[in-house]
Design brief:
Blueprint: E1 6-7, H1 15-18, H2 55-59, E2 83-85, E3 107-114, H3 124-133, E4 136-143, H4 147-155, E5 163-167, H5 175-182, H6 187-190, H7 199-202, H8 206-210, E6 213-214, E7 217-218, E8 221-224, E9 231-236, H9 237-243, H10 251-261, E10 269-271, H11 275-281, E11 294-297, E12 300-303, H12 308-322, H13 328-331, H14 341-345, E13 349-355, H15 357-365, E14 375-377, E15 390-391, E16 396-402, H16 408-421, H17 428-435, E17 442-445, E18 448-451, H18 453-458, E19 472-474, H19 479-493, E20 496-497, H20 519-527, H21 533-562
Parallel strand pairs: 2-19, 3-4, 3-5, 10-13, 15-20
Antiparallel strand pairs: 1-19, 5-16, 6-7, 8-16, 9-13, 9-14, 11-12, 17-18
Amino acid sequence: MTPNAASSPSGPPGPSRRGFLASTAVATAAVAGGMPLLAACGGTDHGSREGTTSGKDAKRLLPAYVASNVVTPDIPSRNGSSMGFTAKLDVAGLKTSVPRKLGKGGKVTVMSPFWGSPPRQDNPYYTAMNDLTGVDVQWRNQDGNTYDQKLGAVLASSDVPDVVVVPGWNMMGKIPSAVISKFADLGPYLSGDKVKEYPNLAAVPTDAWQRSLFGGKLMGLPMPASYVTNIVPLYRQDVFQREGYEVPTSPDEFTALCKDITNARAKRWACGDMKWTAFNIWGVFPGSDKPLWWNLVDGKLVNRVETDAYLEALEWTRKLFAAGYVHPDFKLGKSQATDPGAKFAAGEFLIYNNDISSWYGQRASQATQNPDFRIWGMDLFGPDGGDPTLWAAEPAGIFAFVNKKAPESVVRDVLAVANVTAAPYGTKEWMMTNYGVEGTHYTIKNGVPVKNDRGNNEVNNAFVMIASPASTLAHPDFPDITEGQVTWQQKMGGFTRKTSFWGLQITEPSRYANLASNFEQLEDDIARGHKKISDMQQAVSDWKRQGGDKLRDWYQRLLDENGSAAN
């Protein structure tokens, strides 16, 4: 048995499932949406399918925010962090947040990414959730590792399910335009006070709804996320304590520690590919969505790839590889090093960066066979060892959309399901959504719910994808991990700033969709010593000549119309 997290994730855990959320490949077309200001933003490419929605236009579309008072977190959100629950979950005293079924018994088909072996449709979890919501949800689960291919094919066809889940990292190429043309406007059901019919959706943070505006309409049901970077440099705390290693507080200390740890003959290396941590150390603008690549610096819009910090971070990463400090698996590239967790647990390397969910996931997976195993997150630091300059991630990264052709009865049933799945931690609806049926999917051990194998298979990657509550971290089996995660977010959040286009859904003109598509591969080639920094400098020069400078002008017009989100 493996205990399971009780959290609202920012996405499926770990790079083995979808690459890092911060990946530059995530954004070859802006995780995007549009606005009617578009005539001012190069409106020849499908008019309102370019641009963004903000200001008064956004305000009239956004749902009213009504905070939930059903439960109170042990650790409130601060500096953009998730809220945290560290007390034992009182399963017998769970609150009710949906007093009556809103679903009318209709059938709703949902296509969503799934990591693992999808369960049968008639499994007890799906059956229980359908009974709770009053909706017959039929799942069309697709392999999450190749979801982008399936998504493109389905959206190009006439056979689009009633609901389609689209992760932000799949918003590339023609997908943003397809979202605008294929899916329904939810504004008539959710804008303003209309959302109050669905109280759990009304408690979803406004920033997450802002990210759900596409083509000047409210179209997505969001999965809210903390805006603090989700990429954490994780390390083997147990080994550090046993060997007397000190947690580094500067790049130089990190490199010196790597030298002390590495012993290739003993099959121990210091770290994995630390590129994403390097970007955070050097304060590189975020790589999660292309609009975040741009920021106003000294009065001029600058792209992340044009900065000295970008090159310096790549050079530091390259030196770690060149010195032999990086585990050999990572030298093979992402396809061969998709799941580093097992070798991290085996002690073959002691540091790697991963999604914050892996902080808990690694600990939980080792709880039985290796009870002394301890994992923790390093604080980030600046290039000189001082405070870091970090950049905010987007406040929502996964969205569920309703087919434009769906009748009102189907839309209402989808919202009924979303109102259940967005229930906060500590409620009956949250418990069923995240843990399933007691005795079938989990048991209570020492006051803690623990999933069994069936629970791990069936209660997985499903209903949480339709909508989720405000970003929450809660691990009843390991409350110390919850406290560590939230405290880390709060501390790092104190150093976090917002770039000029933070929080806006932006659809770039299609002519620029593939302009930056080769940068991530070039980054990895440089880190592994296959290419040189000068190759990146040439690529940036080519990018500017081939459309980067014109794209800068396009973003400048957006900035002139909307103002900056930076703080």
